[in-house]
Write a structure and sequence with these properties.
single chain; 15 strands; 25% strand; Rossmann fold; 2 domains; six-stranded parallel β-sheet; Quinone Oxidoreductase, Chain A, domain 1; alpha/beta; seven-stranded mixed β-sheet; globular
Length: 332
């Protein structure tokens, strides 16, 4: 085992769009393992939109990353040394190992994983993004067979799962994504009924054509002008699980939604949710997701960057929509 490892730390807080200069690479000693702890070698690092909010000096639902702290992030990690009776060397776990090659943990929150599925899937379809899709769609959206479910960022880690879950429930799945290639992927590989390119000049006409019976459930990941368009297509008593607003995460001025009257006229249920608030629902959701992935009912694609030094660039690319499916960094 080496004596040192690489970490990515927050160097400065972004003003608007994140830049690579907001991060710095540090070579640090591998920490010693104390009684009750385990030493983890991180194999896979998850990059997710929520991390952008953690870079701000503002109050939110979770603690910000302090300047010079290691960036927060989920990992699939191997236990390489254990002084905790619940874990043995060779165990693989999902952890919050952060943007670094090694980490220590007291065992709290570590989840052992079954290596019969690809390890990377535990950061995607059988991890936080999959659970987010499951809880948001089924608990808040509550789609019925035959209804129309629309999801933005449909080619992303969460949106790609939402549409497939809608199909499992017998609903009609319509995606919104950026560019023809992503829309083709969503329809041809994931089995959505339709996908609309929000970058197209005829986006609104295409959305109308793709939702001839209106929209019953809108799973929101993007916000902004996409939300404005969808609000004009909502059916009475539609439901909106509000998962994210990625179009606004790097904005310096708030976006003002234009069609809020639709929420009142159509008696719409709109509910924001944070998946970490719903820990009691995770085990059942993960069982469903693991089974559907194993059966081939849920398909996944991953965009993989190589090595910890690639994390800042890959993170910025993910925020700009350059990834398809789950954005990961392979560390081992």
């Amino acid at each position: 085992m080496p004596d040192t490892h690489l970490q990515i730390r927050l160097a400065s807080r972004p003003k608007g769009w994140v830049e690579e200069s907001n991060f710095r690479v540090v070579e640090a000693p591998i920490p010693a393992v104390r009684d009750g702890e385990v030493l983890l070698r991180n194999h896979w690092l998850s990059l997710d939109p929520y991390m952008r909010g953690r870079m701000n000096d503002t109050k939110s639902y979770a603690a910000k990353v302090e300047i010079d702290d290691v960036m927060v992030g989920g990992t699939v990690s191997e236990v390489v040394e254990s002084k905790n009776p619940k874990f043995a060397a060779g165990d693989f776990v999902v952890a919050m190992g952060g943007w670094q090659e090694y980490a220590t943990s007291d065992g709290a929150g570590l989840q052992k994983v079954d290596a019969r599925l690809p390890l990377s899937s535990y950061l995607g379809a059988v991890g936080m993004p999959g659970v987010t899709a499951h809880i948001g769609l089924f608990d808040i959206g509550a789609p019925k067979a035959g209804e129309t479910v629309v999801v933005s960022a449909a080619a992303g880690a969460v949106g790609s799962i939402v549409g497939q879950l809608a199909k499992i429930r017998g609903a009609r799945a319509v995606g919104i994504a950026g560019g023809k290639a992503k829309c083709d992927y969503v329809v041809s590989e994931l089995g959505f009924d339709a996908c609309v390119d929000y970058k197209s000049p005829d986006f609104m006409d295409a959305l109308v054509a793709a939702t001839p019976s209106g929209i019953d459930v809108y799973f929101e990941n993007v916000g902004g002008a996409v939300l404005d368009a969808v609000l004009t297509r909502l059916n009475p008593f539609a439901r909106i699980p509000l998962c994210g607003l990625v179009s606004q995460y790097n904005a310096t001025e708030p976006y003002r939604v234009k069609g809020l009257g639709s929420l009142l006229i159509n008696r719409v249920k709109l509910q924001g949710f944070i998946v970490v608030d719903e820990t009691s629902k995770w085990p059942a959701a993960l069982r469903d997701l693991a089974g559907w992935v194993a059966e081939g009912k849920i398909r996944c694609r991953e965009t993989i960057a190589e090595g910890i030094r690639s994390a800042p660039r890959a993170f910025i690319g993910m925020l700009k929509g350059e990834n398809v499916g789950k954005q990961l960094v392979k560390l081992v």
